[in-house]
Amino acid sequence: MGQSNTVRILDGNTFVVCEDTGDIEATPSEPTGLFSIDTRFLSTWVLTVNGERLNSLSYDDLQYFESRFFLVPGVATHYVDAKLSIIRERTVGGSFCEQLTILNHDEKPVDLEVRMDAASDFADLFQVKDEILNKKGEIYTEVESDRLRLGYRRGNFRRETVISSSMSARYDSRGFAYTVHLEPNEQWDASIDVQTHAVGPGGRDLRFGLRKHGTERLALQHDLEKWIADAPKVNSEHGRVASTYRRSLIDLAALRFSPLSLGGATLPAAGLPWFMTMFGRDSILTCLQTLPFTPQLSKTTLRILASLQGSRFDDFRDEDPGRILHEMRYGETAAFEEQPHSPYYGSVDATPLFIVLLDEYERWSGDVALVKELEQESRAALRWIDNYADLVGTGYIWYERRNTDTGLENQCWKDSWDSISYSDGTLPPFPRATCEVQGYAYDAKVRAARLAREFWDDPGFADQLEREAAELKERFNRDWWVDDGEYFALALDPDGRQCDILSSNIGHLLWSGIVEPERAEKLAAHLVGPRLFSGWGVRTLAEGEARYNPIGYHNGTIWPFDNSFIAWGLRRYGFAEEAATIANGILDAATYFDGRLPEAFGGYPRELTKFPVEYPTACSPQAWSTGTPLLLLRTMLGLEPHEGHLAVEPRLPVGMGRIEVLDIPGRWGRVDAFARGRLDLNNLGD
User: Fold this and answer.
1) 303: part of which helix (H) or strand (E)?
2) Cα–Cα distance between 305 and 374 in angstroms, integer?
3) Contact 118, 176 (CB under 8 A)
4) Rounded to whole angstroms, how far apart are CA atoms 267 and 287?
5) Directed axis angle between helix 350-365 and helix 375-383, to 10°?
6) What is the mean pLDDT of residues 114-118?
7) Which region, left, alpha or beta, applies to residue 528 given φ > 0 means left and ψ of -120 to 50 means alpha?
8) What is the chain's Cα-based Rg?
């Protein structure tokens, strides 16, 4: 379903996707409905007045958690004015509340039959995504005098939707109705409450911290105001920067969710609609992007990922001791092991990135206690890199799924089926090793050496890790370098043959520090050269490669998150101009998406399109796209922790103007950073 005709509101992993009238009429393949914990709790929610469907005048996207719809019966024309106004105001905050208001503009009284059709298919989100709705349990409906209960049970697995109203209603198996009499200019109001229940063994309710009816909006509004107040303030002469930053902060707030085990603490869900849950890679990379602005997300993410770290060998879940999870799901297919996501561990980058985040978080926060608390989990992650990830015995991290039915084939961030190929377009056999993951492993060992020496009181282990990192760097620069193209191969096959295509992954290598300095300049030239850089951003795959497609999911599109880490990597190696070029392109693109960068957009050349072309099924909002402007701000201002202080070395794009970032939190307390872009000498006029 296209996004232009749908309205989305969310709070953590509870969200509503509906039509612009507020109605929901879901099909098995459309992600419309009220969803929570990977289950659709409402698939039908249709309002009629006197048996007539309503038409939209407009809707207000009030906050991420609320929307308002202005409706009329029939079609309003220039000659016949509508005699009724219907307003639907909706809030989602764990549960779902709808305020219904009807105004009579007629000169005479009216009698109305107001009806809401309500139903649920209790579809698992995986079933919606795969367009297969195959329910093996029992759907039931219970009509009570003051409420309607929709339910689904399959063994101990039970989900319920309970609907009630502040006004007297008549409930039946298909919904509920009101009989309303309105005098001229009179108003009628009803508040409708929809509670979602996830019942586990023993009748325990597994809901995710639902708020009481009537308090959702105030609680959410207060929480959002505090979230924004606690974050640094950004002011800019170029309005796009400040407005995009604020949009990102609000979307980050919307994507926070709190699993039961966290006791109210939150971490970022990956993206709406398909990925409103915990992802190892996505959550870690989002935390790395947002550390200078929302450091609290990092601590929560590290703790929950550590608590769910792999502890055994489980082929179904692709689990190994020490491995950090890929994805956690709470729906029916995971509960009955029809999918392995309970949790699933099929990711090769989350484990080294876990150590990278722990070190980066300490550098910013000075939170030594967490580093000591997670020492054993960090050591287990390092053992996984050495003992379980090297499937070929060449000292690299490889992947090959053991769950051949429902596991992921590609376990790197470019996880679509055709994202890894040779230059002729053919796909390599498994196991596969992608270049950026070797960089993450190098970075993890370098950072873990610092943690071992400074906080774990183990200088011998630190020396060992530094030796291993140096050997990995030397070996990598020998085996992965494509001589005739002067860049690093995307991947190796198990025989050591290079997948010698030019891809955006080389920018991640700069970020990790695994690139020998004398080769960095070649990579920088590629990254801002015409084959990779479109003018809006760096393409995932270079133009001219066999599988290049400007709207191919990982084969030519532009991923904002990818670009943010590429810019960070360029800055690390001293290529500030190139980093600023990429930041400028992505921030320009953000203005065309009202400050909300999508998961991906088309890799067409900028001179070909007046605006960036959105990828058809991109998630929005998506966590690491939301984090992108924040990391670009850090990169442009050159913000780096250094010996307990915050170093600032700005390099803004030409024409950017002045940027202020105030109250940046860290071990130094709160400090301010200022920068001014250079003038565009071509546009000074006389």
Assistant:
1) helix 296-307
2) 10
3) yes
4) 9
5) 150
6) 98
7) alpha
8) 26
Residues 6+ apart with CB under 8 A from 433: 392, 396, 397, 398, 399, 491, 492
Phi, psi angle pair for 660, to nearest 5°: -120, 130
CA–CA–CA angle 610, 614, 620 (5° rounding): 135
SS3 of 242, please? helix
Three-class DSSP category at 565:
helix
Q: What is the CA 561 to chain-centroid distance, rounded?
A: 10
Q: How far apart are CA 425 and CA 422, in angstroms?
A: 5
Instruction: Report how far residue 116's alpha carbon sits from residue 108's, in angstroms, rounded to the nearest whole number.
Output: 25
pLDDT in tens, 63-95: 899 999 999 997 655 445 689 999 999 999 878
Helix (H, G, I), strand (E, B) or coil at 75: coil
* Amino acid identity, position 228: I
E strand spans, 130-226: 138-143, 148-154, 157-165, 170-172, 175-182, 187-199
Residues 6+ apart with CB under 8 A from 219: 93, 211
Residue 548, both tokens:
């290049």
Give the SS3 label for residue 36: strand
Label residues 256-295 b or e (16+ Cβ within 10 Å = b): bbbbeebeebbbbbbbbbbbbbbbbbbbbbbbbbbbbbbb
**First-residue to last-residue Cα distance in the chain:** 51
Mean of pLDDT values over 669-678: 89
Answer for the pair 300, 367: CB distance below 8 angstroms, yes or no.
Answer: no
pLDDT of residue 609: 87
Contacts of 138 (CB under 8 A, 6+ apart): 152, 153, 154
Q: What is the DSSP letter of 173?
A: T
Distance, CA of 395 to CA of 407 (rounded, Å): 24
- Cα–Cα dist 35/17, whole Å: 8
Print burial letters for 623-654: b (CB count within 10 Å at least 16), e (below 16).
bbbbbbbbbbbbbbbbbbbeeeebebebbbbe
Residue 258 near residue 209, CB atoms below 8 Å: yes
Task: Give the span between the Cα atoms of 455 and 436, in whole angstroms.
Answer: 28
pLDDT tens per residue, range 253-266: 999 988 766 666 78
Q: Cβ neighbours of residue 316 under 8 Å, at least 6 residues apart?
A: 337, 340, 403
Place of tokens 């959550």: 283
Helix (H) or strand (E) holding 628: helix 628-637
- The Cα–Cα gap between 32 and 576 comes to 44
DSSP state of 264: T
Give percent above pLDDT 70 in the chain: 94
Determine the residue type at 11: D
Q: Is 171 exposed, middle or buried (0-12, 13-18, 19+ CB in 10 A)?
A: buried
Q: Which residues contact 474 (CB under 8 A, 6 or more apart)?
A: none
Sign of CA dihedral 275, 277, 280, 285: positive
